[in-house]
Amino acid sequence: MVKLLANVGMASKIKEADPNIYVEMIFLTPAVEALNKKQAMFKPILDSIRKAKKRGVKVIACEVAMKNVGLDKDDLEEGLVDEFAPVGGIYVLNRIKEGYETLTI
Fold first, then answer.
1. At residue 104, what are phi and psi to the nearest 5 degrees?
2. Which of 33, 47, 84, 86, CA to CA, is 20 to 30 A from 69?
3. Angstrom distance (rounded) from CA 51 to CA 53
4. b/e sequence 50-59, b meaning 16+ C-beta within 10 Å
5. Residue 99 and residue 66: Cα distance in Å, rounded?
6. DSSP alpha helices (H): ranges in 1-105?
7. Which of 43, 37, 38, 8 is nearest to 23 (CA)?
């Protein structure tokens, strides 16, 4: 989860450096587990996600990943996720086809 925290921080810093740049974060397995509001161990990550969202970062959750880890939409903080992708991998591939860059840290 340290890597995830670094990724969220990087997305936030990118958006802070250039508010006009469009930044999305898609949460796949196992990272999607960090969106669970019921898990105290994810509080630092949730705080970072909230900060990134305030800067304009869009948060997408993969529905297949959520199902794989037993996570329901009710387990998520209201307003935390901007969009639910039915299949995260296909979502990413479509974004690449559209000309988006993907960054993995």
1. -125, 130
2. 47
3. 5
4. ebbbeeebbb
5. 27
6. 2-17, 43-54, 63-68, 88-97
7. 8
- Give CA–CA dist 19/36, Å, rounded: 28
For 48-102, the pLDDT digits (tens) are 999 999 999 999 999 999 999 999 999 999 999 999 999 999 999 999 999 999 8
Contact 91, 26 (CB under 8 A): yes
CA 32 to CA 90: how far, in whole Å?
16
* Prediction pTM value: 0.91
Full set of structural domains in the chain with CATH? 2-97 (3.40.1260.10)
How is residue 57 written in tokens?
A: 């970062």
